[in-house]
UniProtKB/TrEMBL annotation:
EC numbers for this chain: 5.3.1.16
Main location: cytoplasm
Protein name: 1-(5-phosphoribosyl)-5-[(5-phosphoribosylamino)methylideneamino] imidazole-4-carboxamide isomerase
Annotated metabolic or biological route of this protein: Amino-acid biosynthesis; L-histidine biosynthesis; L-histidine from 5-phospho-alpha-D-ribose 1-diphosphate: step 4/9
Gene Ontology molecular function terms on file: 1-(5-phosphoribosyl)-5-[(5-phosphoribosylamino)methylideneamino]imidazole-4-carboxamide isomerase activity
Residue stretches in coiled coil: none
Encoding gene (name): hisA
Subcellular location: Cytoplasm
Protein family membership: Belongs to the HisA/HisF family.
SUPFAM superfamilies: Ribulose-phoshate binding barrel
NCBIfam families per UniProt: 1-(5-phosphoribosyl)-5-[(5-phosphoribosylamino)methylideneamino]imidazole-4-carboxamide isomerase (TIGR00007)
Gene3D superfamilies: Aldolase class I
Record flagged with keyword Isomerase: yes
Catalytic site: D8 (proton acceptor), D130 (proton donor)
């Protein structure tokens, strides 16, 4: 299982929210680049970078942080948050993102997102499936879409999507464990996708449980910054 650290950005700083609530914000680092370098030094290869400012205002804001991390580390960065236009997408790729994660645009403008899959290839596009009670939420989780999770995944896997970042909003940032049952259900229905589980990982045993459920990848955020999981333990486990 691939374990991917997350850096969430507000005002250029590394933060974490609880259940996507911007009012429940904790700032963990003033300079995300230093944190990214520490990940690289520990042997980590990949980073999930989220522009929470962009998700809120519906256009990418934190290009500068992306550029600094890509320019000063060898991390493979996937970037999400606020990508709503062709211009935003081009800029994100121009600033060094290897992949992009898109959710709101995939829900609200499926024709546009489908054209991006066709233009850039499914290997560079990650479909964000942010769900609560198996229903998709969008716009930084501020809106419910009334779209069932499994219908959404069925539609986009038919259009060529192979990478899915699935977040259980009720678990995110709560440090109460991931919704492993949901991810097992997704994998049973869509066995050929690269599923990236997200939300709720709080201890190393959570990672073992996901691995034993044959989940391909998992994003870890708050647990790293609250020191309940060490990045060194993550790397040593992945290196076995």
């Amino acid at each position: 299982m691939d374990i991917i650290p997350a850096i969430d950005l507000i005002d250029g700083k590394l933060v974490r929210l609880s259940q996507g609530d911007y009012a429940q914000k904790t700032v963990y680092a003033e300079d995300p680049l230093e944190v990214a370098k520490s990940f690289e030094d520990a042997g980590i290869k990949r980073l999930h970078l989220v522009d929470l400012d962009g998700a809120k205002v519906k256009h990418v804001v934190n290009y500068g942080v992306l550029d600094r991390i890509v320019s000063n580390t060898s991390l493979i960065v996937d970037f999400g948050g606020g990508i709503q236009s062709d211009e935003d997408l081009e800029k994100v790729f121009d600033h060094g993102a290897a992949m992009v994660t898109c959710g709101s645009i995939a829900v609200k403008e499926p024709e546009k997102f489908t054209s991006w899959i066709e233009k850039f290839g499914s290997d560079r596009m990650i479909l964000a499936a942010d769900a609560k009670d198996k229903m998709i939420a969008v716009s930084g989780w501020q809106e419910d879409s009334k779209l069932p999770l499994f219908d959404y995944l069925k539609d986009y896997t038919a259009k060529g999507i192979t990478k899915v970042l699935c977040t259980d909003i009720s678990k995110d940032g709560m440090m109460q464990g991931p919704n492993t049952a949901l991810y097992k259900e997704v994998m049973a229905e869509f066995p050929n996708i690269e599923l990236i589980a997200s939300g709720g990982v709080s201890k190393f045993d959570d990672l073992i449980a996901l691995e034993e459920a044959y989940i391909p990848s998992v994003v870890v955020g708050k647990a790293i910054y609250e020191n309940t999981i060490s990045i060194e333990d993550i790397y040593s486990h992945m290196s076995k």
